[in-house]
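Recall from the previous lesson that a structure prediction takes nothing but the amino acid sequence as input. Here we apply that procedure to Gibberellin-regulated protein 6 from Musa balbisiana. The sequence below is the only information supplied.
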Amino acid sequence: MLWELLLLFLQYSASPPASMLCSPMAKLLPLMMLLLLILVSLVSCEIVHEEVQDDDLFLNTQKRQYGPGSLKSYQCPGECTRRCSRTQYHKPCMFFCQKCCRKCLCVPPGFYGNKQVCSCYNNWKTKRGGPKCP
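The prediction returns the following tokens.
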């Protein structure tokens, strides 16, 4: 598309048709074509820029850090909702997950397991020695 406009612009600026030589717009046509070309290139640059920003946002969410202190306390309910979303014991899971998250500021990735990522979350045990955090 862009190349076609450029070729059309070069054709008309080099040798305009005889019918255009008599027209008062004949002198403005190359200028209008040039402005159109600039406008199209600016729009395409803006689209590419937005795609790059979207990719950066996607990569930042993919590179999410896990580990002790990786969360703020206000992020605990959302992370625990994610962590406990597939269990049949939702209420106790949410209770203990939020308790562990407030202490450790960490919730492991996934719905189950991966506790080695959050050492505090992994090492906190019940009185009987079982895992405290879901």
